[in-house]
Amino acid sequence: MPTTGVKEFNSILKDTRNVDVLFGYAYPSTYRAGMTGLATHLFYSILNGREDTSCERYFRYDVASPCHSVESGRPLKENHIVGFSLTYEEDILNLIQMLDSGNIPIMAQQRSETDPIVLVGGPVPSANPEPYADFVDAFVIGEGDLVISQIVNAAVSLSSRSEIIKGLAEIEGVYVPAAGQDEVRRLRISQLDSLYHPTAQIIPDVPEGSTLEPVFGRSLLVETTRGCSYSCKFCLVGHICRPKRSRSLERLKDIISRGVQETPVHKIALIASSLGDIDGLGDLASWIVDRGLGLSVPSLRADSVSGELLSILVRGAQKTFTIAPETGSQKLRRSAGKTLSDDEIENTVQMAAKAGFAALKLYFMIGLPGETDEDVKTIVTMVERLVKMSGMRVTVSLNPFIPKAHTDWEREAQPSIENMRAKIRIVERGLRSTKRVEFEALDPRSARIQAALSIGDRSLGKAILLAARYGGYGGWRRAERESGVPILSMASDTRRIDGHLPWDFIKNQ
Q1: Are 75 and 67 in contact (CB under 8 A)?
Q2: Which residues of 108-118 are buried (b: 16+ CB within 10 A; e: fewer)?
C-alpha cells in the first residue's frame, strides 16, 4: 500500500537491485493536483517502461512525507535524478521545501557528487527558467517526453554526477544554467500520433469527493491536442506550445480502447487547450458515450461547439459547461486577440441550457492593457444577461492579468494591487444581488507574485529562498525587505519594458 494510506491501481514497485537509475518524479503541490496532471502518468509510464530505471513519486502535501516516495518510502536523496514538474510559479517554494526536507542542498552550486541531479520541467521553466536557476541543475525547455530517455541514457552511460550534468547540456532542449549556453531551442514534436501515450494510468481507490481524488474523478486522461491555434496576447500556452497539433481520431480511439482495458475507469477526460478545434470532436464524443463511458471536457471556445456536441456531453454526464469570455467588452476582447463576439457567447450559452446543462462556469480577467472601469462593468452586464437567458447556476471566476514571458503582452505592466482590488470589487458588488451566481477571484497579491516570477531574472533567487523559509504572503514581503528584490512592484516597473529580456535566449524550433 502506498504511503498515502490508500490503494492505487497500476502503481509500480521495482526491485532497485535490478536497475541502474533511481528517478524521483516530484510534484511540488498536493497529491490530488499531481495525479490530475497527465505529465505524472506520462513520465511515470515512460520511465518505468525501461528495465534499467525505477521511477517513484513524491508530493508536497497529502502524503506521509514530502521526501519519501509514495510507492516504497524511498528517500528523495537516494535517487540519482529528482525531476520536478513546475506547473505554477508559486510552487517553487514547495519545491525548495521538498529539497530541504530531503537533505538535498537547496543551492545547485552546493551539491556534491553524492547528491541527486535536480531536473525541472513544465510550462513555467519552459517560458522563463531564470528566476529558479540557483536551485536547479538542469531544465527541460518544452515537451520533455521527447528527451527524457536521452537524459536517463546520460545517467547510465556517464560515470560521475558532474559528467552527467555536462552531458545534459549537449542535449537539445536541455538548459544547464552552469554551462553558459547562449541559446536553447524549445522542444516541440510536429506529429502527436507517433508520440507515446500512457494507457495504464494510476488510479487512487478513494471515495468520490475525497481530498485524494483527482479533479476529474476516476477518469482516463487522454491528450487530444497540444498547443493552440489562436495565440491570445496574454496566453502562455498559445505562444510557447504553438502550433496546435492534434492526434487523429483513430489514434485517440486506440488509446481509449486500450486505456479502459488497462485502467479501472468508466469516464474519459479529454485534455486539450483548444479542444473544440479538432476535426471530428462530435464523432469522438459520440463514440465514447455510446460505449457507456462518461465524458469530461475542459473549457471550450464559444464559437467551436454545436448543439449536437453539447447534447452528447450531457449524455456523457458532463454537468458544467465552461467557457472563457475573458471580458464583457467585445472591443477589449478583440484587443486581447480573442475574436469572440457577444452574440457567439450568448448563443452558445443558450444552446448549453437547451442541451440540459445545469451549471455554467465563466472565466474573466481584469487589469488587461487598455482596460477601463467601464470595461470591467461589462462583465457584470454580461453575467446578468447570461443568467437571465439560461436559468443555469453560474460560477464567475475572476483572475488578474499576469504578464507572461514570450507572449505578445510580455512587456505590459500589471496594475497595482490596489487597482486590481478595486476592479474586483466592481464585479463582486455588481453581482451581489444576482441570484444563482457564485463569485471567486484570485488574490491580487498572489497575482503580483506570480507576475514577478513570470518575468523576473536570476536576482529573484535570493528572495525566493527567503520566502520559502518564511512561508505565506507575509514571507514574500519579509523576503522583499531582506533581499532588496522588488518582488511586489517588479511587474509594474516600466523600466523593464525596453531592452533585453531574461528569457531571450530561449528560441522556438
Answers
A1: yes
A2: beebeeebbbb
Predicted pLDDT at 4 = 56
What is the three-class DSSP state of 417? helix
Same fold, 216-315 and 319-509: yes
Name the residue with cell 522542444. Answer: 187
Tens digits of per-residue pLDDT, 221-241?
A: 999 999 887 879 998 887 888
Look at the block and give the residue holding cell 537547496: 106
* CATH classification code of 319-509: 3.30.750.200
3-class SS of residue 244:
coil
E strands, 372-508, in order: 393-400, 437-441, 506-508
- Cis omega (within 30 of 0) for bond into 123: no
State the DSSP H helix or E strand holding residue 156, giving kind and residue range, or none if neither. helix 148-157
Q: d(Cα 501, Cα 405) in Å, to the nearest integer?
A: 9
**278-316: pLDDT as tens digits:** 888 999 999 999 999 999 998 888 888 899 999 999 999
Q: CATH topology for 8-186? A: Rossmann fold (3.40.50)
Q: Letter for the amino acid at 273?
A: S
Q: What is the CA radius of gyration of the chain?
A: 23
pLDDT tens readout for residues 361-387:
999 999 999 999 999 999 999 999 999
- Which pTM value belongs to this model? 0.95
How many angstroms separate the CA atoms of 387 and 435, rounded?
8
Q: In whole angstroms, what separates CA 100 from the centre of its chain?
A: 24
Question: What is the SS3 assignment for 21?
Answer: strand
C-alpha to C-alpha distance for 239 and 255, rounded to whole angstroms: 27
User: How sure is the predictor about 1, in pLDDT bands with cuts at 50, 70 and 90?
Assistant: very low
Nearest Cα to Cα of residue 88 among 30, 137, 147, 44: 30
Maximum distance among all Cα pairs of the chain, rounded to whole angstroms? 68
Q: Where are the domains of the chain?
A: 8-186, 216-315, 319-509
Joined grid coordinates for residue 61: 502535501
Contact 332, 370 (CB under 8 A): yes
Reported confidence tier of residue 497, pLDDT bands at 50, 70, 90: low
CA–CA gap between residue 250 and residue 262 (Å, rounded): 18
Q: What percentage of the chain carries pLDDT values higher than 70?
A: 98
What tens digit of pLDDT does each residue of 165-214 get?
999 999 999 999 999 999 999 999 989 999 999 999 999 999 999 999 99
- Coarse DSSP helix, strand, coil percentages of the chain, rounded to the nearest 5 percent: 40, 20, 40
If you ran DSSP here, which 8-state letter would residue 116 be given?
A: P
Q: Nearest-CA neighbor of 224 among 194, 193, 199, 188?
A: 193
Where would I find the beta strands (DSSP E) of 336-479?
Answer: 359-366, 393-400, 437-441
Domain 216-315 indexed as CATH 3.30.750.210: yes
What is the C-alpha separation between 58 and 36, in angstroms, rounded?
14
